[in-house]
Design a protein that fits this description.
The complex is a heterodimer. Chain A is an alpha/beta fold. Chain A has three domains: about 80 residues; about 200 residues, no CATH class; about 180 residues, TPP-binding domain (Rossmann fold), CATH 3.40.50.1220. Chain A has 17 helices and six strands. A six-stranded parallel beta sheet of chain A has the order 3-2-1-4-5-6. Chain B has a domain of about 60 residues. The longest helix of chain B has about 30 residues. Chain B is flat. Classes of the chains: A alpha/beta, B mainly alpha.
């Protein structure tokens, strides 16, 4: 036996890979070191894969090499050709594949004739459950984000009852699998008289349905929470698969991902002032809008032309840009950067205020602005810009709606009351770039549009800003 | 190793890793939320280790086939995840 096939070498390598993951994640939390951190974590993965491939447990390479080559090819192509605006759905898709892989590892171990002990059976059930939910949930999120299917929350009649029934069926099947595997027919417990693999396959079907039932009621504006949560699930599935094959590196890496996903989920929920259960089961935005109860909104919409907007911007000393999903839709990030640079040349201070849940995934706007070459130290969080809002000359709201809604502070009957928002209405002038007067994703009225200091710049965000840019240049 | 001892050991590793994960990622600026998520997502592809063992190991034909599909999905997750994260992080610049 060669040294590098010895258990001690293999396990030490797995420990080393875990250390690389930990350092990689640590470095991912600072912009200066993030890229190196990602490479270090990738090296850890490479080490773990190479050590596994040289193990003497692996006796045939033909299938796994084909799958590996195909998977690598698909991974390279998908990651190289996708546009930055499609990043949320790609991340969701990759996440789903991770969940599916963990599920399949559980299945492969189960149908392998070598004996599985009780701990492994519990772990297999859990892996299949979480992996299946991650897979179908992520695929549905992918469909919603890429707008293959409607992003609106889909609530079935009796949603909660259907969900509860499927959860009970899922748990019963998992218990059946744990109790009745590896015992003789006479010892079998319960009324299900099915073979182990059959129970497993039904369990898989149930988990796939569960993933859909859990994700379908969640609307587009809540997507950042779901993506972060599904990310956490894929980590849990991998960690659970570690118990199936008794492997520490899976447990460590999976737990790290699970924890990071939970932290992100928590940040997103806090940014919306809602609990996780409210996001998951609340069916936000589908409820009958009771925002009208809090007094009729007074005022009228005051449109402005790009030419007039230019004159105000030209005289401004400080401008705050507040992007939202609309900027991603119209791909306006490059012209936004151009406008920002022109304003700076004009002696104006430009900052970008980004709400944690703006867009469709955590940090969505930051990625788009980074793509357009905006320096990351110009990007600020709501807490940084709100205290300075009264001295800000112009706020340019680009396709953002709920994250700048003053009702969150002023109207107690609004569904988003209490949510921390960017308080743009306190600035001297607010430009709102919007296609039309339609309500935001959450379907709530926004009194910002009717405020005294608000001017609506209707039309496609990219075209409107391009006009402003050419006005500056002429 | 006796299975109970092994379970305790693995649970011990799990619990410590979860706490480590919370400590590691607690203070991430929102600028990096997307790369962090997609980088973490790539790490969750570690399940490829189990997939490789199932696909190349000494199992029945069906368990090998299931394992092979697992390798396919996991390798997309790993390779795609790391590359896409790298592509995003390359754009984050300070001027």
């Amino acid at each position: 036996m060669l040294f590098f096939q010895s258990p001690i070498f293999i396990n030490l390598s797995y420990i080393f890979a875990s250390i690389l993951f930990i350092f990689g994640l640590k470095m991912l939390s600072s912009p200066e070191t993030a890229q190196r951190g990602n490479i270090i974590s990738a090296l850890g993965m490479l080490l773990a894969i190479l050590v596994t491939l040289t193990q003497k447990n692996i006796i045939s390479y033909e299938y796994l090499l084909i799958a590996l080559v195909l998977g690598i090819a698909v991974g390279i192509m998908a990651s190289s050709f996708v546009k930055m605006t499609s990043m949320p759905e790609l991340v969701a898709l990759f996440n789903g594949f991770g969940g599916m892989a963990s599920l399949l590892v559980g299945v492969a171990e189960y149908i392998n004739p070598s004996n599985v002990n009780l701990i492994q059976l519990i772990a297999i059930s859990f892996t299949v459950l979480i992996g299946g939910i991650t897979f179908s949930g992520s695929l549905l999120a992918f469909g919603k984000l890429s707008e293959i299917i409607s992003g609106k929350p889909l609530i079935l009649y009796g949603q909660k009852i259907i969900l509860s029934v499927f959860i009970i069926i899922g748990i019963s099947l998992a218990l059946d699998l744990i109790i009745n595997t590896g015992v003789t027919d006479a010892e079998k417990f319960g009324f299900l008289n099915l073979s182990g693999p059959t129970v497993l396959y039904i369990l898989i079907a149930v988990t796939l349905i569960l993933g859909i039932l859990l994700t379908a009621p969640i609307g587009g504006a809540d997507m950042p929470v779901v993506i972060a949560l599904l990310n956490s699930y894929s980590g849990l599935a991998a960690s659970s698969a570690g118990f199936v094959i008794n492997n520490n590196v899976l447990i460590v890496a999976g737990a790290l991902v699970g924890a990071s996903g939970l932290i992100l989920t928590n940040i997103m929920c806090k940014a919306m002032n809602r609990s996780l259960t409210n996001v998951l089961f609340g069916g936000f935005g589908s409820a009958s809008g009771d925002s009208s109860k809090g007094g009729q909104i007074q005022g009228e919409v005051k449109p402005i032309s790009a030419e007039d907007a230019y004159l105000i911007l030209e005289a401004a000393n400080s401008v705050l840009v507040v992007p939202g999903y609309g900027m991603a839709v119209s791909q306006a990030q490059h012209v936004v950067r151009e406008l920002g640079e022109l304003l700076e040349e004009n002696g104006c201070e430009v900052k970008y205020a980004i709400h944690p849940v703006a867009g469709r995934m955590p940090g969505h706007m930051n990625v788009l602005l980074a793509e357009a070459n905006v320096s990351y130290d110009l990007l600020a969080e709501p807490d940084d810009v709100n205290p300075l809002m009264d001295t800000t000359d112009v706020c340019i709201v680009i396709g953002a709606n709920d994250v700048v809604n003053p009702d969150a502070r002023e109207n107690e009957s609004s569904p988003i009351f209490g949510m921390p928002v960017i308080e743009v209405d306190r600035a001297k002038t607010v430009f709102v770039l919007k296609r039309s007067m339609a309500a935001g994703f959450a379907g709530i009225d926004n009194p910002l549009f009717l405020k005294e200091n608000t001017r609506m710049l209707f039309g496609d965000a990219k075209e409107s800003i391009s006009t402003l840019v050419s006005e500056f240049k002429s | 190793m006796e299975s109970q001892t092994l379970l305790v050991l693995l649970l011990f590793v799990l619990i410590l890793s979860v706490f480590l994960g919370f400590e590691l990622i607690n203070k991430v600026p929102s600028t990096l939320h997307t790369p962090l998520m997609s980088g973490a997502n790539a790490i969750s592809g570690i399940t490829i280790v189990g997939a490789l063992l199932a696909s190349g190991g000494d199992g029945t034909f069906s368990s090998i086939i299931v394992g092979t599909f697992a390798v396919f999905f996991a390798s997309i997750n790993v390779v795609g995840g790391y590359l896409v994260t790298n592509r995003m992080l390359k754009m984050f610049k300070k001027k």
